[in-house]
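Handout, section 4.2: multi-component inputs.
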Amino acid sequence: MPLIPVLEQKTIHDLLLVLDLAGAFVFAISGAMLGVRRNLDIFGILVLSFAASSAGGIARDLLIGAVPPAAISDWRYLAVALAAGLLTFFWYSLIARLRTAILIFDAAGLALFAVAGTQKALAYGLNPLMAALLGMLTGIGGGIVRDLLVARTPAVLRSDLYALAGAGVCFGLRLMAIRHGWNLPVARPIESEDERE
Amino acid sequence: MPLIPVLEQKTIHDLLLVLDLAGAFVFAISGAMLGVRRNLDIFGILVLSFAASSAGGIARDLLIGAVPPAAISDWRYLAVALAAGLLTFFWYSLIARLRTAILIFDAAGLALFAVAGTQKALAYGLNPLMAALLGMLTGIGGGIVRDLLVARTPAVLRSDLYALAGAGVCFGLRLMAIRHGWNLPVARPIESEDERE
Amino acid sequence: MPLIPVLEQKTIHDLLLVLDLAGAFVFAISGAMLGVRRNLDIFGILVLSFAASSAGGIARDLLIGAVPPAAISDWRYLAVALAAGLLTFFWYSLIARLRTAILIFDAAGLALFAVAGTQKALAYGLNPLMAALLGMLTGIGGGIVRDLLVARTPAVLRSDLYALAGAGVCFGLRLMAIRHGWNLPVARPIESEDERE
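Output:
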């Protein structure tokens, strides 16, 4: 963190926040839909929404020592999760028709969280490999907790999402390269970036 | 924390401890009973007792950055959980007759933990809404982990305990109001408290 | 930590690392084998390897406030887990013949982790009883998460491993006695050690 100028910290922070909230929303919908299908009550559905949307980010924040986690200290995560949960609860038939869309939501949430998680881990000083791993764990954490809460083996462990996760990791590494680029002295030629990878 | 005078900190600390230990005891009994019904061995039963009694508090402490968590650093939580576990193991037939009582125990533990959790989160500087949420998560955390350990969907997500949890949140908010009252200058009229809510 | 001379800290650190990595390897194999038996894809198998090998250590590190946990900040834990996972994935038929060996691996991993966990908790200033408890929780944590990820009641809660866990605790207490011995002034007779226990 101390290596990044104040202005860029602000930009990175805003980017992280938007990615995180967007990921939280789509994961919350997937959590709420599972809750409805398993006949949970409204409270259970909202818990599943929040767990699906925040478990990954909370795990990441605990692991890098960023306590209290953003999902706990920032009310917007809760608001987004509850909004998605209530939306799904009251318009389930509408959202159920979007079944394929939900799968894409899930994958999008995974990718968004993987990028945001990688970026935040880098900002807290973890090395790139572990930051990418943490980004991936962050991405799949919400879905895993969501599935465990209804006592089923997490979908991400059964189906072929690993290619996507791999893509997320690559994306995270690319973002890292960009960040490294930000830190390069102006005189250094941009082409040298690829060599360092 | 720095806002509260030393004497009141002591009082709050004692109150938190008693609420926490009482909640731990009743949750440990519900954990041990589930363990016996699922034919776990004595070790499994004691693990379930401890997990049910401490998982919520441990989660709260990790989330607010109070490490090591009270349930780990204070032997009394372990002692209470093991006592409840052994009690249930050796006098199961007696305790099984108290089936309805157990459900009430469970609800009481949830309420006790919700209050203690809210109060501790407030003491660590979280804002009231998130403190109440954390109190609720604390309250249902033990029961969730207990149920997950025997691979079933947590009872709190299926049944209609949300009303109770809501009550717990209200109770936590009320406690908060009282605490805010403590911090009020003497000259300010008490009636203004409701307006701030 | 401040009580231990620098040289001994180094030795303890090395001992912890070797115990931890050895435990991580055997647990990762048990995780990967379960993944193969449950028809998880290669990504799921590797996640299960890492979860089984690192969940206990990560839980311990979070609870004692050692963030980021060793399993996240040190790439060797990941390398060991992935190696064990790939080994199991490509030579499953070979490893499946070693079924009894796997059970022994599992127990060995539990004991190794219990010792390493106890030692690290002591180094972070927890009292001996809680350090031993944390060592035991560390030892069984990986296996519990491994089993939960495929939605089954953790084996350690069902079968009679508690005697082994007990042995682990004893071993941890013994190590503690040794460490206390290191801190004894030379003039003090060794026989007094038993009395202090």
